[in-house]
């Protein structure tokens, strides 16, 4: 299965429509969006796999499942510490004006089945998808985020 699809203009969901967080915490009922590979890039699952209680418990026991996987779930808006009052700070930080040196309009986007409702895509369009595979939550869902590979990429760009 190809893991890339052609970029399309960002759709504009109806105001007030529910959004999906593409970096939610692991828990029963969440969707397993992808697996972080040893290369530090997310391998998206299409379609995402619902997380059951057994998987959630096993991964919680291993510790910090959000370091190994990305999960999708409802965007909590004001119930999330990343909410700025107007949107998701992670989307703004990763795909904002200083976007780690990645292209704002990539020619190809990851094949991703939550794009129609994705919070990050709604805020930043294709620029969010450009950096999305490199983002990993290091503390569990909504605490803090790392993007080691993206930082390394930006460093290489600076050094070059
Ligand atoms: S930012 Fe793009 S690739 Fe990432 S989850 Fe959202 S729609 Fe999918």
List its traits:
four-stranded antiparallel β-sheet, alpha+beta, globular, 8 strands, 160 residues
Describe the model.
The chain has 160 residues and is α+β, with helices and mostly antiparallel strands. The chain has one domain. 26% of the residues lie in helices and 22% in strands. The protein is built from five helices and eight strands, in the order ββββαβαβααββα. The protein has a four-stranded antiparallel beta sheet with strand order 2-5-3-4, with no helix packed on it. Strands 1-6 form a two-stranded antiparallel sheet. Strands 7-8 form a two-stranded antiparallel sheet. A hairpin with a 5-residue loop joins strand 3 and strand 4. The longest helix has 12 residues. The N and C termini lie far apart (34 Å). It binds iron/sulfur cluster. Iron/sulfur cluster (SF4) binds next to helix 3 and helix 4.
- Which spans of ≥5 residues are poorly predicted at pLDDT below 50? 5-15, 148-157
Bound compounds, each kind once, are: iron/sulfur cluster
Query: What is the H-and-E element order?
Result: EEEEHEHEHHEEH
User: Globular, elongated, flat, extended or rod-shaped: what is the shape?
Assistant: globular
Estimate the mean pLDDT confidence: 78
Give a quick rundown of the structure.
The protein has helices spanning 53-62, 89-95, 119-124, 126-131, 148-159; strands at 4-6, 20-24, 31-36, 42-50, 69-74, 108-110, 136-137, 145-146.
Secondary-structure topology with pairs:
Blueprint: E1 4-6, E2 20-24, E3 31-36, E4 42-50, H1 53-62, E5 69-74, H2 89-95, E6 108-110, H3 119-124, H4 126-131, E7 136-137, E8 145-146, H5 148-159
The structure holds iron/sulfur cluster (SF4).
């Amino acid at each position: 299965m190809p893991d890339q699809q052609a970029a399309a203009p960002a759709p504009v969901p109806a105001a007030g429509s529910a959004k999906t967080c593409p970096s939610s915490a692991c828990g029963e009922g969440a969707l397993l969006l992808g697996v972080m590979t040893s290369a530090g890039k997310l391998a998206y699952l299409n379609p995402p796999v619902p997380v059951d209680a057994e998987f959630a418990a096993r991964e919680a026991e291993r510790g910090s499942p959000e370091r190994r996987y990305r999960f999708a779930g409802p965007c909590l808006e004001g119930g999330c510490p990343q909410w700025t009052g107007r949107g998701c700070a992670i989307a703004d930080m990763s795909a904002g004006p200083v976007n780690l040196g990645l292209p704002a309009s990539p020619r190809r986007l990851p094949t991703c089945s939550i794009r129609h409702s994705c919070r990050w895509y709604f805020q930043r369009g294709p620029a969010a998808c450009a950096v999305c595979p490199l983002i990993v939550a290091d503390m569990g869902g909504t605490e803090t985020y790392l993007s080691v590979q993206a930082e390394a990429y930006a460093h290489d760009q600076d050094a070059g």
